[in-house]
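Let us work through a complete example step by step.
Step 1: write down the sequence.
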Amino acid sequence: MSSVAFETQRAALADVVAIPVTPFAADGDIDRSAHRALLRRLLDGGVRTLTPNGNTGEFYALTPEERRFVTESTLDEAAARATVLVGVGHDVPTAVASARHAREHGAHMVMVHQPVHPYVSQAGWVDYHRAVAAAVPELGVVPYIRNAQLPGARLAELADACPNVIGVKYAVPDAAKFAAFARDAGLDRFVWVAGLAEPYAPSYFSAGATGFTSGLVNVAPAVSLQMIEALRSGDYPAAMKVWEQIRRFEELRAANGSADNVSVVKEALACLGLCRRDVRPPSRQLPEEERAEVAAIASGWSV
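Step 2: predict the structure and record it as tokens.
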């Protein structure tokens, strides 16, 4: 892969990186028509970077066949309209196979989920990501970092071995740690994506991030795009006005260890008539008393 192509991929990360939901039908299977419609709505709303098989897409609740479908459907719908960053993970052979599948179907990049193994060593973290990155040298690779113990030097070590590691989705909820990690790894070497979405975007941008992930964008693309434009222009007061607008919605998603992270997004989409509210275990639908609050928030946005 030429450096010019990687520059295109890097530019796509410096944006709103949408994590589409995976809608389910009444029988529990993926609602394929609703999935397509939601993707088109994002694209028509101006979203230009999509991450199928992200956590808002219930990655860990999907079967391997379903993950392949989500990848293929997203790539087909996005076509030339958006850059696609496919989420991969689980054991190394599965992650490698998923990355190769993404490459075969025209993906531009893969995002490697934070390993969920209970025993993750620093060197083992490098080995895991190196195995995936080396399998698809033509694709940009974006580690998803949720491990507060990982030092920036380990990311630099990974990129020394695999130059296609071009960006980072950093999701440790500590802006000071992010600032230090990015500088230890190489601030200008990678594209830094604020992996905890709009609530953390202003503080992370102030420390060097140039993109942020979003689940809220499924509901209100214009709101997320309004925030990225404010941050790009350095207008932090304007960005914080958007922050205030989405604060309660994101608080509901983050409550109780993010137990209802996806449920709140799907509830809002259900209120708008865009898909069913169904989620899969270990997530659960919102209780009745919270549904009205989500509906009221969503109805107040220009969606």
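Step 3: interpret the result. The chain has a mean pLDDT of 96.
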